[in-house]
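Readers outside the structure-tokenisation community will struggle with the description of the input data as it stands. I therefore recommend that a typical entry be quoted early in the introduction. An entry of this sort, consisting of the sequence and the corresponding backbone structure tokens, reads as follows:
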Amino acid sequence: MRRRVVITGVAGCSPVGNDWPTIRTALHEGRSGVSLTPAFGEVHGMQTRLGGWVRDFSVPDDYPRKKMRTMGRVAQMATVVTAQAIQRAGLEGHPSLHDGRTGVAYGSTSGSPEALEAYARQVLLQRSLKGISPNQYIQLMSHTVAANLAQFFELRGRVIPTCSACTSGSQGIGYAYESVRFGRADCMLAGGAEELHMVDAAVFDVLFATSTSNSEPIRAPRPFDARRDGLVVAEGACTFVLEELGHARERGAPIIGEILGFASNCDGVHMTQPDARGMESVMRAALADAGVVASAIGYVGAHATATEVGDIAESHATWAVFGSSTPVSSLKGHMGHTLGACGALESWITLEMLREGWLAPTLHLEEPDPRCAPLDHVRQAPRATSARVAIKNNFAFGGINTSLVISPWCN
């Protein structure tokens, strides 16, 4: 018998707000979280000056210093939103959090870049260990977020780090879903986080993939638009609490949604050039896993970073599966590309929109690129919807593709 995987808590922080009411208002008002980042200009040759920062973030004063000292900003954001998600799920202080049947699947593009910078400057450039703390390596290691969450919340179940760049958050949710569905866990904390640093912008800048609309920061990025000029790097974090349905009901948890299906694959073609065939395949695989047909999907949450090759490939893959009648939009026009956090943040927002019966438009999409497939773009203003099932797509370097099929709770 298939175990159903439900969502009992979720929380996040983003460039457009750190709670759902604030994010909802930003989406309805067409407000951008992108701003000018003069510090990027300190890097010789860097063209972009744009970034999406999480504002008004702080670690609560009562968090134990001993547990926080191994965390850079990326793990700190993940920890704070995870605590909020646990509280909303009613898991705080519950024995099942520590019984070995609760684990974590969580990712980021890397560890804390700030810690990596300090470590590299002292060890590699100065050839000295003076001033280096053992905690700095913990902050910069690739699985820092998942490991710190497990230690902070005293989890004794499986730990799955998902460090797959832009699919880190969606793989975190997907692998957590599979852990619960196949009986390896009863509850999982899942999601992704990213700490914005100039190294993130540099990665895409050297590929000529960043927006250089530096004089109009709130007009970038422009997913699917004919005049788009690249992505904007950003930061954030989002955590889902996923549980087996019976486990959630037994403890009287609030059930807000369900993960119906998940798939992840690889193009196997090119490290940085996306392939529409792999994207189409992962969507079809997720639908098959969920046991639903394409016509049952009422909304496609696009990855759509506003890069030329990415938007074109994704649009044709989406059209091949859903045609021109399923509403599609990308949230990156509002937030920028939150990298390791985007799969989780965008899944959360997708869930909340469906619960409330509306869809956010792709901000700044004015003239769809004619080279893209003719999708039913949600643009200019939010659109009312009665959709109950959505698919959320994310794609990453290495040809890694993910699709999540999500639904608000209706049983």
